[in-house]
Amino acid sequence: MENNTEFNLKEKIHNWKKALSNNPSVTEADVDELESHLLDLIDDLKAKDLDNEEAFWVAKKRLGSSQEWEEDYQKANNAVLQIKKSLIILAGILIYFLSFYFLKFSSKLLLISLLALKIDSHTSIKIVLSYLTGAHFFYLLFASSIYFREKKTVAFIERIKMKPRDILYLLITTIGFGIIDTCLLPISKKLIRASGPIGNQFYDINFYFNYSFPLIICLSFFFLHMKYFKQTKSTIERGSK
Prior knowledge:
Layout: H1 9-21, H2 28-46, H3 52-63, H4 66-116, H5 121-148, H6 150-158, H7 164-194, H8 198-239
Transmembrane segments: 87-107, 127-148, 168-187, 207-224
InterPro entries: Perm_prefix_1 (IPR047928)
Keywords: Membrane, Transmembrane, Transmembrane helix
């Protein structure tokens, strides 16, 4: 029997594997194992004179749908999945604090540098304000680009592979940024007092930043999570049909 040239076997297997990968009960190792079983079945069926299309659908039917073995995989992978989820959540928290302290210490460092260069105090404050505002808009642009590109949203989140070593690196970096911010605080206070009226303006900027940045981060993560959940659910439903 001649192969069906209109049927793209590689594409079908890729889509099947992609839908399977979006199942939260199945790990990456499970997906590779199931793909290996599927390919073995297809090879056996093709050896019996079935074409690519017939072999794929018969092999897929024999292997069964995710709903049939989802509970077994969920029990077997429960500990692994919980650790993975915990690492991602912990990484998200650390990335928030890392970004928060980076912007705080870099804004202080920028102000100190501008004042040390004898730049007008009001101009220095405007530059620092523009820097922090630009950081807000950059993050919003980044989060929005992920949200509105539907095909990339799930892929972006699924590509996040966290290991305990990565968490340790994030923790050390975050602590380092926090220490730098603390060390720069007395220096910035001294220069601000010497610069007269800009003190209140700088403190106001820091005060609003302490609330605005966490709010933007929380809202972004919330909407991205809802998008991810909705997209993943629809993908799993299509893949199980």
